[in-house]
Every structure is written in C-alpha cells, then in structure tokens.
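README: folding subset

This subset contains proteins for which both the sequence and a predicted structure token string are available. Records are stored as plain text. Below is the entry for Coenzyme A biosynthesis bifunctional protein CoaBC (226 residues), shown exactly as it appears on disk.
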Amino acid sequence: ARSFAGLNWLQGKKALVTAGGTQEPLDPVRYLGNRSSGRMGYAIAQALQEAGAETILVSAPTDLPTPHGVTKISVQTALEMYDVVLGLFPEIDVVIKAAAVADYRPAVEAEQKIKKTGTSRTLELVPNPDILAELGRMKTSQVLIGFAAETENLMENAQHKMQKKNVNLLVANDVTKPGAGFGCPTNIVSFLFPDGRRIDLPQMSKLEVARHLVREIAKLLGIQTK
Ligand code: CTP
Ligand code: CA
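--- output ---
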C-alpha cells in the first residue's frame, strides 16, 4: 500500500484514538482483561499522523511501540479512559474508539491479595460507563467513529450499535473470522454509515484498514481526497 505521508488531508485537525483492552483490577496482583492487542488502534493512530493530524492515542496497556509523532496517554481502566477522553473531547475534531473497553469492573478492588479458600466464590461486577455512547450524546461538530466486535449476527448487531451510539461511521469486525480480530496482523471489516451505505473491505493489514478509514474520515470532515 502506498504511504499517506505528504498527502496532508488532516493537516490542522485534532484526532483522538483509543486502543488496547482495559484492565479492571481485582486486587493488587490481578485484573479482569480481554484479548485486545491494541494493533488496530495503533495502526489508526499511525495513519492519522501520516495524514497530518495532531494525534493523541489514549491507550490501555499493550506491548506496542508508540507510532512516531503520536502523543500517547496511558490508562489502565475504563473509568480512567472515560475521564481522559471526555476531558479532551471538546477540543477534538475526530474520535476513533478502537479500544476494547471492559463493560464491567469488580464492585470492589481488594486492598490486599485475595486469599484462596478452597471453596467456590462469586465475583460481583458493576457496569462501566459506555464512553462512546456518552460521546454520541455530547457531540457537537465532531466526527465519531465506533467499532463493533462481534462473534455472531455481525451486521445486525453493528447496525444496532451505530444507531444507539450516534456515530458517523461504525467499523464492523467479526472477531471469530480467520484473518481478523484480536491479535491478528490483518483484519476483515465493513464500514457502516448512518445513511445506510456500507463498504466491505477484503482481508488486508491493519495499517491498510487504517488508511482506508482515514480516507473516509477526511470525507466526513468535508475534505477533498482526490
Ligand atoms: N465502548 C465504549 N465504552 C464501553 C464499551 C464499549 O466506548 N464501556 C465502545 C468501544 O470502544 C467500541 C464500541 O463501544 O467502539 C462498541 O463496543 P462493543 O463491545 O462492540 O459493544 P457494546 O456496546 O459494549 O455492546 P456488547 O459488548 O454488549 O456487544
Ligand atoms: Ca462491550
């Protein structure tokens, strides 16, 4: 794929990307996590930066290097991500919510390591705020991009999420397909738009997916991409 360097579609625009899987602490040595590697979000941050956007990456813990020229803010939990993203939102032009945010967190974080008892036990979980849905309610002129990670009924579930969260574009992702999803260097996605348009992309690297997404973002911002 050709590089976007020098095209400068997003020059003067501020972009915020979230990436990785949040970690919800249980005690000082344990957390609830998920299989997100952060690769898709990091690729998007790189593509936005290459297109000239001032790019902030709000990242849950990952093993990935920060893309050149991107400002990274590290967070661990969904609540930390919520605070950072909502705080920055008013000054941002485009938000891409690629992070796998934990829907629930343990009701209490134990101060000391939880000891085994040898009997079964139950863990109480409480819901985390839905960051993307909150941005959808707050949004003024921002372009808002969401992801849908699904294991069944991809298009139906994705369509529903797009409407519920008031996004301008939803990236639908069947995470069970070979060549797609968590930890994979490639992805197979569809872009869904509120006007009913849909773009199905073939399997390609996550950076190529990110570059396609950047083109659509530029169009949504009213920028000529020819
Ligand atoms: N998301 C978010 N905050 C949450 C949960 C999800 O911002 N607490 C965002 C994700 O970053 C993603 C989109 O919402 O862009 C969809 O996430 P997904 O897990 O696919 O959907 P949910 O709305 O959480 O619904 P469910 O997990 O029940 O399918
Ligand atoms: Ca979820």
